[in-house]
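Batch 3, record 17
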Amino acid sequence: MSLLIGALSLGLILSLLALGVFMSFRVFGYADLTAEGSLTLGGAVAAVLLVAGWQPVAATLAGALAGALAGAFTGVLITRFNVARLLAGILTMTSLYSINLRIMAKSVIPLANERSLVSQSEHLGLRIFGAPAISIAGWTVTVRDLGLLILMVVFVALVAAVLLVFLRTNLGAALRATGENPQMMRALGTDDRLMVTFGLALSNGLVALSGALLAQYQGFADVQMGIGMLAWGLASVIIGEALVGSAPMGFTLTGAVMGSLLFRLMVALALRWGLNPNDLKLITAGIVLAAFLLPRAMESFRSKKRMPAHA
Amino acid sequence: MLEIRGIRKTFNPGTPNEVRALQGVSLSLPEGGFTVIIGTNGSGKSTLLNAVAGSFFPDEGTIHIAGNDVTHWPEHKRASLVGRVFQDPFKGTAPGLSIAENLALASLRGQSRGLGKALNAGLRSQIRDTIAGLNMGLEDRIDNAMGSLSGGQRQALTLLMATWLKPRLLLLDEPTAALDPKSADKVTTLAGEIVARDKLTTFMVTHSMQQAAAFGDRLIMMHRGQPIYDISGDDKKRVRPVELLEKFEELRRSELLDEAAAEMLERSYV
Ligand SMILES: Nc1ncnc2c1ncn2[C@@H]1O[C@H](COP(=O)(O)OP(=O)(O)OP(=O)(O)O)[C@@H](O)[C@H]1O
Ligand SMILES: [Mg+2]
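Prediction for the assembled complex:
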């Protein structure tokens, strides 16, 4: 039971990463490597501020803001200096590794004893349930885990709803259209360079928000925590698309969240059954690769079937 | 309305791929005029339209639209004055957005885009009514993805989008070249109707001599980056497609003569 609750909480936290990757991968059509650095950046900024005694919500949002700045930087490299998109992401990601170390001043910042969203949700859980542990259908669950899950459900639902509403505003629609057809948006009077910069800021803001929450959830910020996270986000987005197919905006966003939850659940089960945690990133990469290859394999299989074999 | 003075544009200057696409073009288009441009492939027609739209800045010369010196305005800023339809029917619309969303984007051409709802009930019904006027049966599909439509349908919608807010200048770059004859006819008729209804100042490139003869009040033929033939008024009204074809033939012959002359020179001097 606590395995399930833990997987759901973590899945929800990482669904913000998935939403961020969704923004760059599906809206702008490429996977932005900045995400690997900005996830850590979000965790690092939030951790340092929490240690300094900031309000957990404020520290978390500050982490997200820092990520947005990193994304905007990549956007400026791409749009003002004509750096290739992939290279711009690599440059920002690499610089962020040093910057994150500077911010943290060491490679790990423990948060277990700090006031954080986790400790606050523990209080919340205690207040709601009145005891440090309760039993659900015969399973004992700590109210800390439960409180955290509730908080994350509310948090992620809120962020996803705001994102969905935003993408349907004039500005949000312009952002999506720029990703698909920048020439059209220029002809309609919108500076596509500004839009790309803004979109990458939004994407990395979400990723960093995920990082800030992740650091609090796991009880420490780690300068390595972003490594491999882009593939993780991609896997979630792709699994989500497999779940909902090509559907209207609202469903694809929900799909990314569901993809993240499902993926985390599968991983938790696999770990439970003895998967070596060190193999996790290899498996994540494998899933992303399979998701890219499968549709093509299916296509060629189908066209082979259509063509009658020559005797 | 549109004042082009002495613009030149050379692509890839100083390299083996150097192309002098525009070699000193000066044109003055009056308010409400409909000017048609024809010319051989690579003669600089699209380059001229792109220079006006701001896809690049000319090496020399100035461009004024509706009294504004737009020579150094970026493309997106000129969009407040210019509506545009591209040769490629897929360039003017966003395939993943719905038909209604595409038109909603066009309804704010050249204006700032804030956090207001892109589509409200009023705009939706306005979009539905306007699209019903196309008689393409698209009014019941305004929430479908733009990418689900044919090239002709998308081009017709691009035309609606370019003219949703009345542009000071409408640029049409072979809007029907990529369409099958039937859709081409439909888009051509639509363009004629909209231009006449809104009295739009229009600058249209075409490959079709029929279109060139039938449309507009002025006809310009481009050749090697320069206008070489420019008729308007009664001359334009009288001109027939065959005469235009003869003009092309004449050009081709003088080209051949040029080549023959060059060859002769080469033979005697090299
Ligand atoms: N961006 C560019 N870079 C390099 N060369 C270019 C560019 N755009 C146009 N050209 C060249 O400039 C010349 C004029 O091209 P343009 O597209 O204006 O011709 P056009 O008259 O529109 O021809 P078409 O009838 O084929 O559309 C051509 O030789 C073309 O190759
Ligand atoms: Mg052309």
